[in-house]
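New to this. Comment on this protein:
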Amino acid sequence: MRLACRSDHGSVTMVMTDRMITATRLKAELLGVLDAVQASGDSLVVTKRGRPVARVVPFSDEAPLAGSVRFLVGDDELLAPIEETWDAER
């Protein structure tokens, strides 16, 4: 990962940019590139003819929770009040 600095009228902005590799070079060096991504934890952008086409990221065992819940009822039924009375102190 590279850091690029630029001046914003007296303040400095740090911009993190991903490392890039061409698809041709990735094909030739794939196993070494995968080892490097795993060891560094940094992502890598793959380009084809100068345009980004893919990103190689280190694997994480932690599954993201976003999108992991599936509601089996609609919003109206999910948010509707229940008709039962209950005692929270029980």
Notes: The first strand starts at residue 2 and ends at 8.
